[in-house]
Specification:
disordered N terminus; mainly beta; 8% helix; 2 helices; 171 residues; globular; single chain
Length: 171
């Protein structure tokens, strides 16, 4: 089974105090691109012809976001960070092109060995997938429920590498 051990080198540098009120608008210009050497979109082959997508550094442990196909025609996202609280609800806002998605997710147990917490959230496949296939950047804002936006980043780059992922997802 193709797998990636998720490590968070430099993800702590993504956490920004944005000063945007939780009830206020989002200043999308605060989502700066991750520009580490060799990072970009890629796919992880899995058993049974399935494929996950990721943004990170291929052939390494550095993965910022991992995306899986869901049986409910949605995309399941996983984001790992050492600063998030376990068992907490988080608000997530995504933007691709001119489309915005207001979502929520929940964290699980803290990973003892790595001292990391995983946030999982789902997003509708349709327009989000179409925008990514067309080469739109993915802008991400994350905040604990009731808090100000604390994390923002942009995933830019050539999404053509995601073609096998979208084919495996049925679109």
């Amino acid at each position: 089974m193709g797998s990636i051990r998720v490590a968070v080198a430099a993800v702590a540098s993504l956490a920004l105090v944005l000063g945007v009120a939780a009830a206020g608008g989002i200043d999308w210009s605060k989502a700066k691109p991750i520009e580490d050497d060799g990072v970009g979109w890629g796919v992880i082959p899995l058993d049974g012809g399935k494929v996950d997508a990721f943004f990170g550094r291929p052939e390494s442990d550095y993965v910022v976001v991992r995306i899986s196909c869901s049986k409910t025609r949605s995309l399941d996202f996983s984001y790992i960070d050492g600063t998030m609280k376990p068992h907490a609800k988080y608000r997530v806002h995504l933007r691709t092109g001119t489309h915005e998605f207001a979502l929520s997710g929940r964290t699980a147990e803290r990973w003892e060995m790595d001292d990391l917490v995983e946030l999982r959230f789902g997003a509708p496949t349709g327009q989000l997938a179409a925008d990514l296939r067309a080469g739109a950047d993915l802008l991400v804002f994350i905040a604990e429920d009731g808090s100000q936006w604390t994390t923002a980043f942009a995933l830019a780059g050539d999404a053509k590498a995601l073609a096998p992922f979208f084919a495996a997802c049925g679109g």
